[in-house]
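Lab notebook, bench 4. Still working through the backlog of constructs that have no structural model yet. Next entry is a single chain of 436 residues. Request: give me the structure tokens for it.
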Amino acid sequence: MDFTIHLPHELVDRLFCYVSARDISVCSQLCVAWREVTNRDAIWLNLCMRQGWLRYGLSSDILHEEPLFPDTSNVSGTSPVFHLPVPEGTRLSPVCKWKNIFLRVKHLNENWAKGRYSSAQILRGHKEKVTAIECDGKYIVSGGADHKLIVWDLRERKPLYKVDVHSDTISSLIIKGNLIVTGCSDSAVRVIDKNSGQMLFSLLGHSGSVDHLALVNTCIVSAGTDKTVRVWSLSERKLKFIMKGHEDDIECMHRHGNLLATGSWDKTVRVWNVTTGKLLNLFNGHSEVVSCCQLGSEILVSGSGDCDIRVWKVISGQCVHVLEGHTEEVYCTVFNGKVIASGSSDSTVRIWTHSGESMHVLTGHLGVVRCLHINDERLVSGGDQKKIIIWDYMKGIMLNIVHRHPTLLHLMWVSDTKLITASPERPGTITVLSYW
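Model written out:
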């Protein structure tokens, strides 16, 4: 007896919630009727929810993601392009939305794990090294030591225009809608129209290089070598607050909501309320420069030249864990709801629990591990010797090494489908890899 005929659809969908995606796929091949029964959003929405993939259907648009380089060579030997063939003249209904999403995300994760990616020619345009990069999915914006800002069309792989309004190295940049905000070693913050390349206005006040930028609501936040953090009104084009307290250059900055964390060569981390311009908390404990930090809603994680990572409570300022294990300076740290990850000049990536225990020591890099990116599925680490590695951080295993990465790297931008790196060499170059 076929129970799917006699039971209400809602109950059938509920029963399939206890079945794996693989078994549901097997069921769908039994007959046309069962294919239609298993091709319902309620079933596949539940499967996506169990995998933590809801964001692909809610906040991103993987259903309309197109291959970035469909006409270029595939360096790994297997195309990353997703195909879902539908026979012509079929009496089957179209694949439902959440099944389509499930299949696409599964394919995308396999691309990262198995090294299926496409690459185009290296982007060349800077005469000196690239010192800042950002991407909004459609355009890449790069700044260099040659004082040039270049806006690239990502799909066409060519520069749209070059902006020549800076008098020194462009040390930081961010994109907000149609605006590009740059920080420069000449101490100015500049706001540029992304569509035309015209500078709209500049913000003056810093007395040193502007090395860090953030956007908080309608405010630009800048920090750098003059030891100050400045909050500017984007709409009014004027300074709102100067936040002072650091006794040496600010080395790192990270924002979360209306809070901002800054780490300095004075060995401290400070958390500021950008809305009020006030210091929320001062974090003392490191014995060397605070080289990296990440701020969350409840915790702050900082890494230092003293080889340690410290986990702090944001509100109380209490240091709840000191993560010891690296033997040289910590260059980068990231965390999500599952783990904390850190990269060091000792060539290792270490994975830690939020309770302060060491989970894994990941080896494979040669030289400094300079960049980390984490999401629910994978950890991406970039370091010296042109090396980029994809990890399953929960199991502590290497999934894939990005072979034949053509240049050295010191900057890395990662999305669900793309990996973009900038080289510290001169002339500056940018490499784009597409995993879709």
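Notes after review: The two ends are 43 Å apart (CA to CA). The chain is about 15% helix and 40% strand. Flag for follow-up if needed.
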